[in-house]
Write a structure and sequence with these properties.
The protein is an all-beta fold. It contains no helices and twelve strands. Helices cover 0% and strands 57% of the residues. It starts with 10 loop residues before the first strand and ends in an 8-residue tail after the last strand.
């Protein structure tokens, strides 16, 4: 028995961010269009993780500030010196800038957590798992249950840093 992948021919915009230090980035370095087949997640961006004392963490802020959104995100990639990074994270954005029923499943090296910014925006915190040298790229994908935020969601800012404190909180 063989599997067939149907190519829809639809190209999705992917915002690529470069983070090679601790400065905040608000603009993608480029926007590529990629064909993504057979997934219900929307690829919202690629983030370069590179460092040797240039920031163990990357905080990612989205434009989603609504309450009562059941979301789940996937962050995956390969980091030289660390290997595979694959994280699934989900939760329910509730009032008072909280996330209820938060769940994270991390495989490989590094991990991802979620939080809400001081303005209520959904944020992710990526920990590459080491302060030593590593580099690579992770892709961030988003989905929600019945809230149709997939068409609206974008990464609005990223910030590389050496602090485990949530930067946008």
């Amino acid at each position: 028995m063989s599997a067939t992948i149907v190519d829809t021919g639809v190209l999705y915009p992917v915002r690529t961010f470069n983070n090679t230090g601790t400065s905040e980035t608000t603009s993608p370095s480029n926007i590529q269009r990629k064909n993504i087949v057979g997934v219900d997640f929307k690829l919202i961006g690629d983030v370069q993780l590179r460092g040797n004392g240039n920031g163990r963490y990357v905080d990612v802020k989205t434009n989603i500030a609504d309450n009562h959104v059941m979301f789940h995100c996937m962050v995956h990639g390969y980091l030289y010196g660390n290997g595979l990074m694959y994280s699934l994270i989900g939760g329910y954005t509730y009032s008072s800038n909280t996330i209820l029923n938060k769940y994270t499943h991390n495989l490989g090296h590094g991990y991802v957590t979620s939080y809400r910014s001081s303005g209520g925006h959904l944020c992710l915190k990526i920990d590459r798992g080491t302060n030593g040298y590593t580099e690579g790229r992770v892709s961030i994908s988003y989905n929600d249950h019945g809230h149709n935020k997939q068409g609206d969601i974008v990464i609005s800012r990223i910030k590389g840093n050496d602090s485990s404190v949530n930067y946008y909180a």
